[in-house]
Amino acid sequence: MNPTACILVIGNEILSGRTQDVNVQYIARRLAELGITLAEVRIIPDRRPVIVDTIVAARAAFDHVFTTGGIGPTHDDITAPCVAEAFGLPWVIHPETFRLLEAHFPQGEFNAARQRMATLPQGAVPIPNPVSSAPGFSIGNVHVLAGVPRIMRAMFEELAPSLRHGTPVASQSWHALGLYEGALAAGLTDIQERFPGLDIGSYPFRRPDGRGGVTLVSKGLDPAQVRAAADAVQALIAQLGCTPIEGEPPP
Amino acid sequence: MNPTACILVIGNEILSGRTQDVNVQYIARRLAELGITLAEVRIIPDRRPVIVDTIVAARAAFDHVFTTGGIGPTHDDITAPCVAEAFGLPWVIHPETFRLLEAHFPQGEFNAARQRMATLPQGAVPIPNPVSSAPGFSIGNVHVLAGVPRIMRAMFEELAPSLRHGTPVASQSWHALGLYEGALAAGLTDIQERFPGLDIGSYPFRRPDGRGGVTLVSKGLDPAQVRAAADAVQALIAQLGCTPIEGEPPP
């Protein structure tokens, strides 16, 4: 069994619709490559009791918990003290991070707000931030990342080698241009039943020129099974009078 | 108090990173306009027990629950029977929808898979689908929408007039080009403390030309308070030697 993961997106700006989240897709793709099963994502507001309760529940339910957002210097950046509270740990200056940020900022600009970014749950291990210095951190199975996408991605890549991995997900896609899901459904159900250990997914697409079709994705941990299921999908599309097109994205 | 809402995004394709969700942002913006507080979003897989348990929990915890995805004709489209199970209701042919879809498809093409799209929890009220006919539905406080964005949006707009509304969220944004969050943090904390009923949010941005800054958003239900807080934000930016720029998106 691959390890499981949950992403907690912490931020009023996503719940208000102000900001389009793009971090979930990045982390989701990387976890699939690393053989970690993303089982759930929750988007929650910048409210202390909600964040604390959600972290407490998630860290018990999943092997890895990733949070994004809420680790900057302003009053609405409360992820780090909430993680400390969820673990029952004090939230304290991390001396090495303090020195790093003190050296990063010009003389006199490492103010109280910025010193909060050097304040971590006791025992946390910083995740380096090659973009703007202020680190994320891991404590137990909870990994706290920035919300700004390019910083989040850099932190994730710093963290990735140390995560407990599993078997990468194998995936093969065939597109049926001009076919509808309703025509494919019966044949797909048969294929899913023949390969109960795989996920056979069916996703309609529509091109800018107005032509549409369906993408059929076979996914799972056993590459030979995935290939066999994808061969069956290819044959199904051909049998319905359409030329199967392989690969991603849709043609 | 405004009514609360939760969005359940149902779909392996989001959790695998294959697909970038765009439905959350659309619904989030519309709910803010309608005065409905989006309190949580959960992205969950196409797994029956997970979907059922999540719907049971969400419908008890929030005034409105919106689901997206999983209402097509294929084997992985299991939202409707899961909602029926969560309500303890039979999942039965909805005669009016059956007739609608029978008339929509060419003779002989309204097959068993497509008939599933006319099968709803007993007592459900269909949500019209002006794009491709197969409807969503509401049962109790759970509103079941398509996953394909243009169909989801059309269904949402069909549904919106019948939702219990509240007071629309008022919002005013000021941008500080060239300022960092760390310089603004102390002043912002003061403003947040003066306006405890509002959310004062701070969001760094970075333009394609490499110049960055911070957007400061004042949000709440009382437009006069929002204006007063935004005036204080404007003054803070000016006091730090920067010219405040109003509006959305960032300059």
Automatic annotation (TrEMBL), chains A, B:
Q: What SMART domains is this protein classified in?
A: MoCF_biosynth
Matches recorded under InterPro entries: CinA (IPR050101), FLAD1_M (IPR056596), MoaB/Mog-like_dom_sf (IPR036425), MoaB/Mog_dom (IPR001453)
Lineage here is:
Bacteria, Pseudomonadati, Pseudomonadota, Alphaproteobacteria, Acetobacterales
Question: What is the protein's name according to its record?
Answer: Molybdopterin-binding protein
Q: Where do the MoaB/Mog domain residues begin and end? A: 6-166
Source organism per UniProt: Nguyenibacter vanlangensis
Superkingdom classification of source: Bacteria
